[in-house]
């Protein structure tokens, strides 16, 4: 992923290099992770995890949304007009984003659950911060403690690294494993919460701290016969002190269960796995930390990547989507307004070009938002299709770091980071 590194901070590049070296030299082994284990798992990462019951935590059941096509473990209704269920997850339908404004309404925001949404009581919830990267012992925060800290509001996209995965197969013919998302595993929300940096300093962050690893309170993730434990993934202390939130509100309301109630991390610009939901503890370490989510999962494996896999994925690539259903129908001989959005984890979006003839001619779309790191840009253009027949609509974005969506995405076995221009099939009648 040559382009994936552009726009990253110097500390991120150094971190990537260091973690890659450590992983390849076998240092990560011991967390139930080995190269053999990685290979064994690659074939089964899409399998749904078993849900172990945890003391004091209710788990959402499959009956939560009786009349809707349910996803096991998701609490909110999943109307087919807004969301498409994929295993334990639900994908936003792009046609349902038209006219919704900048922020994705919670009713249609995608859900990515490794297991099931836990139902947690804010009054009983505690966050424990602990580890060798603190000057003293463990420190506990209640929900009221977090609410009493200075509140920060930020608009940021949240996106799964595997967003667009199905196009590796349907558009490029590359076999990949994992949830077959189209492009709806992304949303933008207005998040409000406490700065992780404030919490870490109050907990007694020491200058020796290197890694910060939040852990969720959802059930352990079990797949392919391996229990990976609870969702957790380390990040460098520099990122934790930079722009990370411990969010308790989404779009002006307290978080709902599926999106991390009562408190989740929001790690702007990074792969969604960093934004741990239902956070219950944070380990602050004076040595590098490893978990299945930065060793087995969320690395790039395959012939185009280093033997043994890439560094753990961090910043998201550039992507675009039309606010249209697949196979949308347009009347010939009249004008239509095409709308869509583009985003990148490596900077704001500064240019979007659209082709309505399958990639022959390109023209600039009109941008409706200023380029902003961590956010997306809404755009529009007009289209006057002449004769009836099938057509392909394409949108290609360029970010402020100079990354442009390619015609073909470099494949990797688990199908992360599909950044190629999507050929959106429509019908003119
Ligand atoms: N945190 C926990 N505890 N458990 C999870 O399954 N999924 C991660 C992340 N945080 C996950 C988690 C992934 S892969 C993504 S893309 C985002 O949450 C999705 O957030 P959302 O469900 O609020 O859209």
Automatic annotation (TrEMBL):
Pfam families: Mo-co_dimer, Oxidored_molyb
Cofactor: Mo-molybdopterin
Boundaries of every Moybdenum cofactor oxidoreductase dimerisation domain copy: 337-417
Protein name: Sulfite oxidase
A GO BP annotation: sulfur compound metabolic process
GO molecular function ontology, one term from the record: molybdenum ion binding
Sequence ranges assigned to domain Oxidoreductase molybdopterin-binding in this UniProt record: 114-293
Native species: Streptomyces telluris
Keyword Acetylation: no
CDD domains per record: SO_family_Moco_dimer (cd02110)
Keyword hit for Repeat: no
Keywords assigned: Metal-binding, Molybdenum, Oxidoreductase
